[in-house]
Design a protein that fits this description.
This protein is α+β, with helices and mostly antiparallel strands. Helices cover 30% and strands 26% of the residues. The strands form 2 sheets. An 8-stranded mixed beta sheet has the order 5-13-7-12-11-10-9-8. Strands 1-2-3-4-14-6 form a 6-stranded mixed beta sheet. Strand 3, helix 4 and strand 4 form a beta-alpha-beta unit. 36% of the residues are buried. The N terminus is likely disordered.
Length: 333
């Protein structure tokens, strides 16, 4: 990551004649800064779910550009982390807000992105992400959303800060959100719908060709996740649930344990072959997948980076929207 190291540290590193000493110093500085960034992220976004190891890897990416602000004691109290033309993180500790720190960091990030030849800057999702966009309580795109139970710590009017600075919600016709549910015994009383002629089981490696036939027809961008998945091994905690019409896979669902932390399960990448859509196969898979996670010892379910329409589908198993995202984008031209 660029911009990590203080001038004093750089001078110290230059003075070192031993390459191993230099590398060790750089590594230590990287670890220290990553620890500080992760702590800052957790303090300011307690409602964002991201598995700790994943978040640390993202924050320590060597391609990142970091802009930061420290207090008089040298503690990190504000930071902007940029990856390519994406602002992965912008946050300032509460005592230092409304002092111009955040605006300065954002301006530095925008200037840097523009200097690299990009015409736009986005917040949240790029090649990597800590969260899909700016976490908000208000839905950015006005529509009817079912099954809402927002996180109580979500701040009011989070998007207005960015709107005033020229950002817009880039998803013009839908919303992005996370969904959550506690896994309780009541889940077992939800009966998945049955479709005549359709059976369900967990997939093994030999099912992959038929799985890809289904995903390619239904949602081709999901195929790579199924193709690269390690969930087909018999001893894997993660599973791929499939719906079968005879030997033909007509529906797929990823069912993952410990997806964003201990005791947190997740389901996603739902596909149903176009010839079989409208027959409640997706609903059946989702309920079955959630039940499997509960029976496997997961305490709660979390679905990240979902979008309009899926609130109704995943809501059938009990998931509710917990966080909306302002998918921020700004032209730099």
């Amino acid at each position: 990551m660029s911009n990590y190291i203080t001038n004093a540290r750089i001078k110290q590193a230059i003075r070192l004649k031993n390459a191993r000493q230099y590398d060790t110093l750089i590594e230590k500085e990287t670890i220290i800064m990553t620890e500080s960034l992760y702590a800052l992220f957790k303090r300011n976004f307690p409602y964002v779910r991201r598995e700790e190891e994943t978040a640390r890897d993202i924050l320590s990416n060597p391609e990142n550009q970091l802009f930061f602000h420290k207090d008089n004691a040298g503690n990190l109290v504000g930071a902007a982390v940029v990856h390519k033309n994406t602002l992965l993180l912008l946050c300032v500790d509460a005592p230092f807000r409304n002092t111009g720190v955040g605006s300065k960091l954002l301006a530095e990030a925008e200037t840097y992105v523009k200097s690299k030849g990009y015409k736009t800057i986005t917040i949240g999702v790029g090649d990597i992400y800590l969260c899909p966009g700016v976490p908000v309580k208000e839905m950015p795109f006005e529509e009817e959303i079912s099954n809402i139970a927002l996180h109580p710590q979500l701040p009011e009017n989070n998007a207005s800060y960015f709107i005033k600075r020229g950002y817009r919600h880039a998803w013009n016709d839908c919303n992005c959100f996370d969904m959550h549910m506690p896994f309780t015994p009541e889940l077992l009383s939800i009966h998945p719908p049955e479709t005549p002629g359709i059976e369900y089981r967990f997939a093994n490696q030999s099912d992959l060709p038929s799985i890809l036939d289904c995903t390619n027809a239904a949602e081709k961008e999901f195929s790579k996740y199924y193709e690269e998945s390690e969930s087909y091994a018999p001893d894997s905690h993660d599973k791929v649930l499939i719906a079968l019409d005879g030997d033909r896979v007509v529906g797929t669902l990823m069912v993952d344990q410990e997806a964003e932390g201990e005791g947190i399960g997740s389901i996603g990448c739902t596909t149903v072959h176009p010839a079989y859509q409208g027959r409640k196969i997706a609903s059946s898979m989702i309920i079955r997948g959630a039940k499997h996670l509960y029976k496997s010892g997961m305490k709660e379910g979390f679905l990240g980076y979902t979008y309009s329409g899926l609130d109704k589908l995943y809501g059938k198993a009990g998931f509710k929207v917990c966080t909306f995202y302002f998918m921020a984008e700004k032209s730099l031209s």
